[in-house]
Amino acid sequence: MSAPLDVLIVGGGPAGLSAALMLGRARRRVLLFDAGQQRNRRSRRIGGFLTRDGCSPRDLLRISRQQLRAYPTLELRDGVEIVSAKPCASGFQLRSKTGEVFLGRKLLVATGVTDSPPPIPNVERFYGRGVLHCPYCDGYEQRDKSIAVYGGSTDALALALELTGWTSRLCLVSDGLCELRPAQRRRLSASGITLREEPITGLKGRGSQLERILFARGEDLPVDALFFHAKGQARLDLARELGLDADRRKPLKTAGYGKTRVPGLYVAGDASNHVQFAIVAAGEGAAAAFAINTELLKEDIAGSPRRSRAVLAQEACQPETRLLRRA
Ligand SMILES: Cc1cc2nc3c(=O)[nH]c(=O)nc-3n(C[C@H](O)[C@H](O)[C@H](O)COP(=O)(O)OP(=O)(O)OC[C@H]3O[C@@H](n4cnc5c(N)ncnc54)[C@H](O)[C@@H]3O)c2cc1C
Prior knowledge:
The chain has about 325 residues and is an alpha/beta fold. The protein contains 8 helices and 17 strands. Strands 1, 2, 3, 4, 5, 6 and 17 form a 7-stranded mixed sheet that branches. A 5-stranded parallel sheet has the order 8-15-9-10-11, with helices on one face. The longest helix has 26 residues, at about 280-305. The radius of gyration is 23 Å and the shape is elongated. Flavin-adenine dinucleotide binds near residues 36, 37, 40 and 43.
């Protein structure tokens, strides 16, 4: 039996791909799985990613993958969903939806989060284009425009106040349920933010460009965008299966470098942190890769492996050498 892979990565967004790049450069044998549901896939452009500001999410992935192809010890498995993770003698055992089994010494979970847009009929048509959640990602393009903020909670109020940094044309649309206390309402109006409390019946626009919010009563509200407070759910089922006590609603708080309490298990990207930007996810992936490689190096040096890493890396380039372990 040949050795298991050095690192298995689940998730091919900025975090997972960036980790793969660093590990490929460290000549580690890596297999990355990606189910293709990157969080920003419906967006037109990525804002705030140095050197890629304004690039489409699709182009970012295309360029990343093109660059990763230069590293012969990396393999990417697109469209493969990992459904279970178990500890095993060599480290970790993953099983795909189609029943394939893979072994790796270390595991990086970079599975991101899932978002739920506001419960408005036809919201899906505009989600990621005119229905947005992150002022830092999309606020600049909406500067000085007419923006509505969805919800009647304190979180919605906080988002509306935050957006005053981008525009003064703001309206909180509470969709029939406003929990704001009198002092909070006064704060809204002192900040020049109007409030519409009627239930929302739908959104109207041209293509995916949002133009109006429709209410059960009263006039439509002309808007350029609708922001909402996203409560993204971290995709941490695999980490939980491996014994991590991770909250279903929140990203996992990891120690530095994405380390977790489970030895050899790392979590990076949106699944692991509260600053959820693509460039931060990429940075976290790179940092986790550094820590993983350091850990592997220590083990390799302590364990006097029979074959040197350079030999293993060469083997990985040869098609007849399948480094994947399949049970
Ligand atoms: C509408 C929208 C717009 C955004 N715009 C911006 C922006 O302009 N600028 C910015 O910096 N950030 C933006 N973001 C945030 C950005 O998308 C995230 O910060 C970034 O994608 C996080 O990267 P990640 O690698 O952690 O996760 P993701 O990019 O979400 O990638 C995770 C990947 O893991 C895969 N996966 C999950 N589970 C499994 C499994 N079991 N098996 C196999 N694969 C799996 C998923 O399918 C997915 O492809 C936006 C987010 C949204 C929702």
